[in-house]
Amino acid sequence: MTTLTRADWEQRARDLKIEGRAYINGEYTDAVSGETFECISPVDGRLLGKIASCDAADAQRAVDNARATFNSGAWSRLAPTKRKATMIRFAGLLKQHAEELALLETLDMGKPISDSLYIDVPGAAQALSWSGEAIDKIYDEVAATPHDQLGLVTREPVGVVGAIVPWNFPLMMACWKLGPALSTGNSVILKPSEKSPLTAIRIAALAVEAGIPKGVLNVLPGYGHTVGKALALHNDVDTLVFTGSTKIAKQLLIYSGESNMKRVWLEAGGKSPNIVFADAPDLQAAAEAAAGAIAFNQGEVCTAGSRLLVERSIKDKFLPLVIEALKTWKPGNPLDPATNVGALVDTQQMNTVLSYIESGRTDGAKLVVGGKRILQETGGTYVEPTIFDGVSNAMKIAQEEIFGPVLSVITFDSAEEAIQIANDTPYGLAAAVWTADISKAHLTAKALRAGSVWVNQYDGGDMTAPFGGFKQSGNGRDKSLHAFDKYTELKATWIKL
C-alpha cells in the first residue's frame, strides 16, 4: 500500500514527463504527417501534452514492421517457454512502474488514483503474466486415425493483430488483448483511444525492455476514423480485436468484408440487468452492490449494472437502501486517494451523459438522486451519480448504453417478467441475480441471454473465466484459455505412414 497523499500525487503530476509519440519498430516517432492532437485531462482541464495523430501512412509503417518481424520468427517461432519468461518480465515491469502508470491513467482518463493503482495496473500485469504462464501448457492434438495415418491438429499464431481498445480501462483492456496475442507469437499493432492513449504509449517501451523484439508491439495513437479505419481496412492485418461501442463494432465488420475478410473479434456495448428478487439473502449487500455497479469508474463500464430490476413487493424497502448506499460514492479530485468517483473522460462524454439524464426526465421517469454536473470550478468533468425510478424498459435511458453513473430502476412481479425485461435489449454482456433459492438462481441464469451472469454478487470472476457477450454485445472472449482461440489458427496435418 502506498502512503502517497493527494499533495504527493499532484507534485508527481507536475513533474511527470509525458511521451506522446507513436511507437514503431522499437522507437518513439512522430506521425508521418507531423500532425498532433491535444490530450486534455478531465481532472481539471489541463493540457497534458500533444499526441501524435497517426493515419494510414503510420499504419502502413507499423504493419510492414510487424509483418517483417513476424516472418523473421524472432518472436513467432520462439519456444513457448521463452515467450512465457518474457511475458512474465513484461508484467513485472508494469508492477515496477505501477505508480507512474497509475498517474498517467488517472490524469488521462479521470478515474480515481486508488482504482488506477490497486485495480487497473495490477489487473493489467496479471493479464500479461497469466497468459504468459499458460502458453507452455496448451497442448496440440493427435487425431484418432487408422494405423497407417497420422493426423495432427496444431495451433499457429495468426500473424499481425490489430487491437483497438477503449478509453475507460485503457491499460487493462490493452493487456487483456496483449496477453494472449503476444504469448501465442503474434505481432500486434495497438490503437488506443484518442481519449486516453498515454499508458499504451508508455508500455510499448517496457515491452522491448522486457525482451520482446522490436517490431512485435507497435502503438499508434490517433482517431478511429483515420488510423483505426486504416488498420481495419489493411489487407495485411490478419485479425482485428476491438473493445468499444456497438456502432463502431458493426463498422469494423463492414471494413473486414471490404478488405481481406480479416477475423474480427468484438466486445461491444452492454445494458446489464441487475435483478433483485424478494427472497434475496441480504438486501443490504444487494443495495451496496447496486450502488457500486453504477458508480464504479464513474459508470463508464461496459458491464455497469445500469438497469436495476426490483421485485415490486420489496421496491419501497429496497430503493431507500440503494439511495443510502450511493451516498458513499462521491465525485472528488481523482488524485486524492480517498476519492472513489472521478471525472468523466471528457466534455463530450459528460454532455452525452447529461443529455441522457434530460431524456429520462422528458420521458417521465422520476429523478430521485443526482442528475447534475458538479465541481465545475475545478475545470473538470464531474456528474453526480444519478437514480431514476419508475422507468419503463422501453425508455431511451433503459435501452441505450449511457456510459455514465445513471441508474434506471424497473419493477417486476414474477421471475418470468424479470427475465423478459432483462432480455429485452439489443445487448447481452452481463447480468446479476439476487435470490436465496438455488433453483431460481440456476433457472434464471440459464434463461438470461448474457455472456456473464453473477449470482448474489455483481462483477464476479477473474482471469480464469471467459469474458464477452451475446447478441450485439459482440463475439469471442477475453480472459481465460478461450481467449487464445482468437489469436491462433488451427492447422490439420494428415500424414500417410
Provide keyphrases for this structure.
2 domains; globular; 23 strands; 7-stranded mixed beta sheet; alpha/beta; Aldehyde Dehydrogenase, Chain A, domain 1; 5-stranded parallel beta sheet; 497 residues; Aldehyde Dehydrogenase, Chain A, domain 2
Spell out the blueprint of helices and strands:
Elements: H1 6-15, E1 22-24, E2 27-29, E3 36-40, E4 47-52, H2 56-72, H3 80-96, H4 98-109, H5 113-134, E5 141-142, E6 149-157, E7 160-164, H6 170-183, E8 187-191, H7 198-210, E9 217-219, H8 224-233, E10 239-243, H9 246-258, E11 263-267, E12 273-276, H10 283-295, E13 307-311, H11 312-326, H12 347-362, E14 366-369, E15 373-374, E16 382-383, E17 386-389, H13 396-399, E18 406-412, H14 415-423, E19 427-428, E20 430-434, H15 438-447, E21 452-455, E22 470-471, E23 488-496
Parallel strand pairs: 7-8, 7-10, 8-9, 10-11, 12-13, 12-20, 13-18, 17-18, 20-21
Antiparallel strand pairs: 1-2, 3-4, 5-6, 6-23, 14-17, 15-16, 19-22
Helix pairs in contact: 2-8, 3-5, 3-7, 4-5, 5-6, 10-11
